[in-house]
Amino acid sequence: MSPEAVFSLASTIVLPQWLLMVLAPRWFVTRWLMNAYLIPVCLAVIYVIYLFRGGPVDFSAFGTLAGVKQLFAQGGDGVMLAGWVHYLAFDLVAGTVVVRDSQEKAIPHWLIVLPLFFCFMLGPVGLLLYWIIRTVRTHQVSV
């Protein structure tokens, strides 16, 4: 399968869970997906395959910005795809954490729709927005 096809597949398989977390956060299917981590695990498999497909990774390169730039520049489509899948997986996990935590804290679901959108599009921005809402609603900074 070409990296472009895997990119499309990976980008598509996250959509059902995102939609369910927004539209039906308490439905048993949504809860099952969130608890099973099925989609992030599938993405993790794709990540491992494409990260190591071109041979060993120079982990020392992660220590500097120049090293990371070099990894992406020399890694080609496989490394770029691995990076994209990394974002997809961790943004989905962050969204899952937001839904679960908001339910535990009894934060109205309508308040987390915008943070979920930002988790989907900009990962950490959504998590930051949720953290602000959570802190204001619960008057607590920690768990």
Describe the global form. Answer: globular
The profile of the biggest β sheet is: none
CA(first)-CA(last) distance:
43 Å
The oligomerization state is: single chain
Summary of the model, kept short:
The protein has helices at residues 3-13, 15-23, 28-36, 38-52, 65-104, 113-122, 124-138. By secondary structure, the chain is an all-alpha fold.
Topology of helices and strands:
Layout: H1 3-13, H2 15-23, H3 28-36, H4 38-52, H5 65-104, H6 113-122, H7 124-138
Helix pairs in contact: 1-5, 4-5, 5-6, 5-7, 6-7
Please give a structural write-up:
- The longest helix is centred in the middle third of the chain and has 40 residues, at 65-104.
- The protein has one domain (3-138).
- It is built from 7 helices and no strands.
- The protein has helices at 3-13, 15-23, 28-36, 38-52, 65-104, 113-122, 124-138.
- The protein is globular and about 45 Å long.
- Helix content is 76%, strand content 0%.
- The chain has 143 residues and is mainly α.
- α1 (3-13) runs parallel beside α5, α5 (65-104) packs parallel to α7 and α6 (113-122) packs antiparallel against α7 (124-138).
